[in-house]
Amino acid sequence: MLNQKYTIDSKYIQQHLANERTYLAWIRTSITIMGVGFLITNLHFSTLSSKILISDVLAKIIGLTSIFVGIISIIISTFTYFQKSKKINQQTFTFSSLSVIFLSVALVLIFIVFSIYFLCIWGF
Predict the structure, then answer these.
(1) What InterPro entries does the record point to (predicted)?
(2) Which of 4, 72, 91, 123 is the most buried (most CB within 10 A)?
(3) Domain count, the chain
(4) What is the Cα–Cα distance from 118 to 31, expressed in whole angstroms?
């Protein structure tokens, strides 16, 4: 008979792998948020010769806010990844709504600024 050493992590391997997939999805989402903000800002300043000062300000706000939200999302997702790993091993897992609420509110605010930006660009 083979002598196999089991760890607490291997006992809950499916849950840990699901936790890792969730973490990687949050990382991809964070990178996408930062990329969209960078893209909007770059497109605004490289293609539009707008005479509207507020559109320049809004483009900068969109870019900076997107980067900030992306960085905070990475920090929160990393923290919750390790927290969930520990709770899985202790069999005390509880749903954490902090990251979902933060990302939802932050994205709604960014989209509101996007809307104002597009209204300024289109002249409404």
Answers:
(1) DUF202, IM_YidH-like
(2) 72
(3) 1
(4) 23
| 117 three-class SS | helix
What lies within 8 Å, CB to CB, of 91 at 6+ separation is none
Sign of CA dihedral 112, 113, 114, 116: positive
Determine the pLDDT at residue 5: 62
* pLDDT 10s digits, 44-74: 888 766 667 788 888 888 999 999 999 999 9
The contacts of residue 36 (CB under 8 Å, 6+ apart) are 66
| pLDDT beneath 70, residues of the chain | 1-6, 48-51, 123-124
Residue 92 is assigned to a structural domain of this protein: yes
